[in-house]
Design goal:
11% of the residues lie in helices and 46% in strands. The chain has 365 residues and is mainly beta. A hairpin with a 5-residue loop joins strand 18 and strand 19. The longest helix has 29 residues, at 2-30.
Length: 365
């Protein structure tokens, strides 16, 4: 009887040992895979999805002290006054940066291309240099080159300055045009992405609340009006605050635009209506258009290149009912001491970025 009990206990112990060995083996199977080159155990690291994504990150980097590099993300915050050096890998690279650096031909900016990378250096950056910096690979096929959009890298860089929470502007009173068919932007950008910004109407004094739908705030753009209307007209400013005293932006005049985009709508008129020999005659070519739309004029008339004429071009903004704002551009052609050769067809051609329109009028005795 005792022998039978001992045998049962021994059998149970053997089964437990077998189970333990299987568990150890299973843990090794599901654990870290290892290989053993040159008699050493080496860990094989399997990339996680996040690690794989990192390999496809931007090739746009910032050069730090002592030869260290920092890969820039979608936004970066840097210290003003300290020289900035950016690099982008590739032997043919294009760059973009805040446009005013080109407008004022800023000597602080330099770009150099080497065999392996392109280098952009901006010395003594300030709050005004806050903006979007990007680089891209240029692909060429013979003499034709184009931008590779799949290898374009962008970083919006803030040069945070506690004394300039808003990006400085050379214009102290900006006009923002409101159009019913597109969003409008009040461009009060900040140098600190953590700043709290609000929009205010000057008269009557009122804070306009950003509700996340009709009115939103983007620190890289400003306040965005999704569906502008005439009620949004007026003088506005922005207020920003971090830890110190609130700061006020430049002022913005919001004007509602009546005329839609398109080729110029041209009218042509003559003064006086009845012309005789010896009279002075004015022919006016007038265009109604968008406030920001530049218009160019050309003339064809009797006696061209044989008779002197005076041509004067001008434009102005006018309100046309319900406070809609329109730009009136005009070219005035004046003929003094009219002669027989001056009678005939006067043709005016007006052109903007959307197209051109030509009209004519006949002047007779």
């Amino acid at each position: 009887m005792k022998l039978w009990v001992v045998l049962c206990l021994a059998l149970i112990w053997v089964q437990l040992q077998i189970g333990a060995c299987q568990q150890v083996k299973q843990r090794k199977d599901v654990g870290e895979n290892r290989i053993r080159p040159a008699g050493k155990w080496v860990k094989i690291r399997h990339l996680k999805p996040k690690d794989r994504a990192g390999k496809a990150q931007s090739l746009l980097t910032q050069v730090l002290d002592k030869g260290r590099f920092l890969r820039l993300g979608q936004t970066s915050t840097l210290t003003p006054g300290k020289n900035m050096e950016l690099r982008c890998k590739g032997n043919s690279i294009g760059w973009s940066y805040p446009t005013y650096l080109d407008t004022f031909n800023d000597s602080r900016l330099s770009i150099k291309q080497s065999d392996k990378y392109s280098q952009l250096v901006l010395t003594s950056p300030s709050a005004a240099d806050t903006g979007s910096y990007s680089c891209w690979v240029i692909v060429c096929d013979g003499t034709e080159c184009e931008r590779d959009h799949d290898r374009t890298y962008v970083s919006y860089i803030y040069f945070t300055d506690k004394d300039n929470l808003f990006v400085p502007s050379a214009i102290h009173f900006e006009i923002v045009y409101l159009r019913p068919d597109r969003p409008a932007v009040v461009p009060c950008r900040v140098t600190d992405p953590q700043a709290k910004v609000s929009l205010h109407r000057e008269v009557p004094p009122q804070e306009i609340t950003a509700n996340g739908t009709q009115l939103t705030y983007d620190p890289t753009k400003g306040f965005v009006l999704r569906n502008p209307s005439p009620e949004h007209q007026g003088v506005f400013y922005c207020k920003a605050v971090t830890k110190g005293t609130p700061q006020i932006s430049t002022k913005y005049q919001l004007l509602y635009v009546e005329v839609p985009s398109g080729a110029p709508f041209v009218s042509l008129g003559v003064s006086p209506e009845s012309v005789r020999d010896g009279d002075n005659v004015n022919v006016t070519c007038r265009v109604l258009g968008e406030p920001e739309e530049d218009v160019s004029f050309t003339w064809s008339y009797p006696g061209q290149d044989r008779r002197p004429v005076h041509i004067q071009t001008s434009w102005r903004l006018v309100n046309r009912g319900m406070s809609h704002t329109t730009r009136v551009s005009q070219s005035l052609l004046t003929v003094e001491d009219v002669e027989t050769i001056d009678f005939g067809n006067y043709i005016c051609s007006a052109k903007n970025q959307y197209g051109g329109t030509t009209v004519s009028i006949y002047i007779s005795k």
